[in-house]
Amino acid sequence: MKNAMPRNPKAFKLISVLLGIGLALGLLLFVEFISSYILKSKGLNPYPFFINATAKQNPDMPIFARRAYTFYDPLLGYAHNPAMIRDEWFAPGFVLHGKKEVEQGKTVRIVALGGSTTDGNNAFNLSWSKVLLRLMEERGIEAQILNGGVAGYTSSQELLKLIRDVLPLEPDIIVSLDGVNDLGYVHAIPEHPMVHEYQQYVMEYLANGPEPYFLPNTIHLLNLSFKRVKLFDDNRRGINYGTTVNITSAKEWERNVRMMHAVSEEYGIPFLVFLQPTLGVGKYNISKEEEEKMLTNDEGKKISGYLKLVRDFYQEARESCKGMPYCIDLVDVFHTQQNLYYDKRHPTIKGYEILSSAIYAELAKRYKGILAK
Asked: Which of 92, 103, 174, 246 is at 20 to 30 A from 46, Cα to Cα?
């Protein structure tokens, strides 16, 4: 009797190879899962399976979107790349508008803080601080405005920057325009809101080392073994993000604003914060085009949940603003206008004009003596 042979030896061989590959991949996945479990059980941060963490970087984060934000900052996460700034650089983190030299008793020095609406690195190369300078010069006020706004910064980064960088500049007035970057903790760790999301990425990279492209947990575990690093060793690397915070993002914004005011007042520097307008809240005659922008991302895809985040944050923040004499609510500043946003958050050139006029009017009302140097 002849031996039983497969009718199609090539097909049998192919199936055998595929089964072998499947078993090997299954074994590798099992090993990766076990490695991840071991790392996690020892208090270390495991990597996502088969994914290089670098590929997970959020494309909406300004540090990755443009080359203008490629400088690391140990306190704030990231900062401007001076070589990519189109305006004149004054000092690390500040763009100069107006006079280079301050004449004592004559030149008013104002520091502007905020996120991308303050940062002039946009399609128009425009910021409210630039327009504010022009309004002041038209009225014969000699001014130097140092724009410290950085796209993606929240009020937490503003507070830290004020303490570290603004106080040494000894400005006459500090002005912040913020709010929208704080809503929903979209740029921070919710339990540790002082930590920016990019700062978290950098810290985890430093703690874990470079991310392997394949089987990251297994390779990381092997690296630790070959380096004779004991997983129970007290010298193992970890990350301390500080005390856990359990408050709404609007409360965190209020907390930061109050601290910015307290620090400024302690050093005798007037401080004002303006709660910025954005699509989705307040009195505004929104157009169909703007409504479409509000409900989609940059790729034109529908997004869900954003509008609720905006309204929840602003409802609470606007109420908090009423209790702070140094807070000015500008949410309704565009209420008689239309088509003043080029995306869901940022104003057009005309929008910047209106915004800056409102900020100047408040400064002129409150600080007439300082502006009349």
From this structure: 246
